[in-house]
Specification:
about 290 residues; six-stranded mixed β-sheet; 9 helices; four-stranded antiparallel β-sheet; alpha/beta
């Protein structure tokens, strides 16, 4: 039995229940129950953009030992969600993100991304999924030092042989959207950490992917800059039709998410609920796609 909202595997019937059309649905918390009750039809009719069921990930050590990181993880994310994954170091949240982003493979279990069972995809198909449908933002920025800001943003298309005027125009528009139009010709070493992360965020949007994965995007920044970066991500989320998942240790960053999913010992343990309605708009709200 799975929670229809967060996807957590339930051990049995819980006290959090909603009856609809003659069927009972059970949830991990009041937050999932109330979210489902407020929009039953959408949850029943909308396929999750990301779904994990019973996912295990074990790393084999050279000495013959094994380290289990994910221990039956089940979770769901719906189109347009802004989700934060939280938990102590070693809880499995970054491993889960790597598996969702097809940067790693599960030892067992089922993973579906954009309706595709990734276990059945070839390496070529996985590479295409990563390049076309998933944008990545990392803690370390991962910019190419020898390239300018606009060239770094253009990179996802440049490596596919698309470096023409249309690509440059798209990159210029994205740099302007993150407040760096005047820095397009600067290289990473000529920019602050916050500016470099803005470039990385613009790059993640370059191919207009439906999914954005951000792993500790504020981890290397001071608190003031961190606040500006998360405000920027939320603003871009509201303006673009994207699903964003953020791995974070920062409670302030997590507080901006629609749903905060807590990890412990390689499993999803709880949905902590929703951010303030002043920060995000309800599911199905009107957004201006870019």
């Amino acid at each position: 039995m799975f929670d229809f909202v967060c996807g957590m595997e339930l051990e049995g019937e819980t006290e959090f229940r909603v009856a609809s059309a003659g069927r009972d649905y059970f949830f991990c918390s009041t937050h999932c129950r109330d979210e489902f009750a407020a929009d039953v039809e959408t949850f029943l009719k909308t396929e999750p953009i990301i779904a994990l069921e019973g996912v295990h990930k074990t790393y084999e050590l050279g000495s013959g030992g094994a380290v289990p990181v994910l221990r039956g993880l089940s979770m769901r994310v719906y189109p347009g969600d802004l989700v934060a994954l939280v938990g102590p170091s070693g809880s499995g949240k970054s491993t889960a993100m790597n598996i969702i982003g097809t940067l790693d493979t599960p030892t067992s279990g089922r993973v579906r991304v954009l309706g595709k069972d990734i276990s059945g995809l070839s390496e070529t198909a996985l590479s295409d999924l990563r390049s076309k449908d998933i944008g990545f933002v990392f803690q370390q920025f991962n910019l190419i030092p020898s390239l300018t800001a606009i060239e770094n943003v253009m990179l996802p298309r440049m490596i596919r042989g698309q470096a023409g005027p249309e690509t440059k125009k798209r990159a210029s528009e994205l740099l302007a959207s993150v407040g760096l139009a005047a820095r397009s010709g600067h290289r990473p070493m000529q920019m602050s950490g916050g500016e470099q992360q803005r470039v990385a965020i613009a790059r993640a949007f370059m191919n207009d992917p439906p999914i954005i994965l951000a792993d500790e995007p504020t981890g290397n920044l001071d608190s003031s800059t961190s606040g500006k970066i998360i405000d920027l991500l939320v603003d871009l989320w509201q303006k673009h039709r994207k699903t964003i998942i953020i791995v974070t240790h920062d409670p302030h960053v997590a507080s901006h998410a629609m749903r905060v999913l807590s990890f412990e010992d390689g499993r999803l343990m709880r949905n902590h609920g929703l951010a303030e309605k002043s920060i995000w708009s309800r599911r199905g709200h009107d957004k201006a796609g870019v």
